[in-house]
Write a structure and sequence with these properties.
Elements: E1 12-14, E2 19-21, H1 23-40, E3 49-53, H2 58-71, E4 77-84, H3 91-105, E5 108-113, H4 114-117, H5 122-129, H6 138-156, E6 161-163, H7 168-181, H8 184-187, E7 204-205, H9 213-222, H10 238-253, H11 257-276, E8 283-284, E9 291-292, H12 298-313
Parallel strand pairs: 3-4, 3-6, 4-5, 6-7
Antiparallel strand pairs: 1-2, 8-9
Helix pairs in contact: 1-9, 2-3, 2-9, 7-10, 7-11
Bound molecules: zinc ion (2 copies).
């Protein structure tokens, strides 16, 4: 097939709009979408310092490349932050990939590890907490601690906003999952943009939220970007996988479904946010000082749980630094 714009050989067909793209026009289309998203929500302002969270996976690495490219025409500061959760055989490899990409792009790169800031790795946590039935999923600790540490890193580095690599598929999956759980309040907390809800909470931006996962993978492949495509050994979120498969099936049958769902979410968001935002007055955690709805934040609660369990089991470990 031929590119709908220039007639050169096509490398991609966007079913949702019925257009073919050659390599050059595919790049242009992805980059334009990201630029438009950033502009629409004023995600980045001239001269701001943006921290991009880079795991080494496809989304975050492609995001870093796109932001680096954008910065050539629109000046802002960019630093890369990688969280090392301490997952043997997985994160050690992707951290290296993140590092190499940052080097290639000439972007200052900082690695923050669970070991240094939480006191123990995710592998150690799982070991201490024991079999699956005796603890919450590894992803719960990981997600809470990663969020906590990213915010910690962003504040330490004086970052104005944190850019995360969530794509169209992630956004729509999250929207549906929360709807199906009846958790409408949560939908009012994320959304297309984060308002400054607390001075201690660095706002997050999601410049890739209008780019389908498929296009991100293809962008990496076509442009020879090194990414880690392996999956986390702890990732077993069955519910999300079901939603993902169902969404892909619907997109196949009714092209454009994902975009329509995103539009619905974006239209609902201001209404939901208005209703629920005030419900969460934020305090400062008594232990670490980060913003929390309660007295002690979830990250510190989890940490105390693990310490307690380790003591009961007589497992000795040294906590490095207080969170
Ligand atoms: Zn073309
Ligand atoms: Zn805390």
């Amino acid at each position: 097939m031929r590119c709908s714009k220039c007639g050169r050989e096509a490398v991609y067909f966007a079913r949702y709009e019925g257009r073919y793209y050659c390599h050059r026009h595919f790049n242009e289309m992805v980059e334009r979408k990201v630029k438009a998203t950033i502009r629409k929500y004023q995600m980045i302002r001239r001269g701001e310092k943006i921290g991009v969270a880079v795991s080494g996976g496809k989304d975050s690495v492609v995001l870093m490349h796109l932001l680096a490219k954008l910065r050539r025409k629109f000046p802002f500061e960019l630093v890369a932050i990688t969280i090392d959760e301490g997952i043997r055989g997985y994160r050690d490899r992707s951290v290296e990939i993140a590092k190499r990409n940052a080097e290639l792009l000439g972007i200052e790169h900082h690695i923050y590890s669970f070991r240094d800031y939480i006191g123990l790795t995710l592998d150690e946590t799982v070991e201490i907490m024991g079999p699956r039935e005796e603890r919450v999923g590894a992803c719960s600790y990981c997600g809470v601690w990663r969020r906590w540490l990213l915010n910690c890193a962003a504040r330490e580095l004086g970052v104005d906003k944190l850019a995360v690599g969530l794509n169209l598929d992630d956004e729509v999956q999250m929207f549906l999952m929360n709807l199906m759980r009846g958790d409408v309040a949560r939908l009012g907390r994320t959304g297309p943009y984060y308002e400054e809800i607390h001075e201690g909470l660095v706002p997050r931006i999601k410049p890739l939220r209008e780019v389908p996962e498929k296009e991100i993978v293809l962008y990496a492949v076509l442009n020879d970007i090194e990414v880690d495509l392996s999956e986390c050994p702890y990732a077993v979120e069955a519910f999300r996988a079901e939603i993902r498969d169902w969404l892909n099936e619907m997109e196949e049958k009714h092209p454009g479904t994902k975009y329509q769902l995103l539009r619905s979410y974006d239209r609902l968001f201001p209404l939901i946010a208005k209703t629920y935002a005030r419900e969460i007055g934020l305090n400062r955690c008594k232990l670490c000082g980060q913003p929390t709805a309660g007295k002690i934040c979830k990250a510190c609660q989890f940490r105390l749980q693990v310490v307690e369990r380790a003591r009961k089991k007589g497992i000795a470990f040294t906590l490095q630094g207080e969170p």
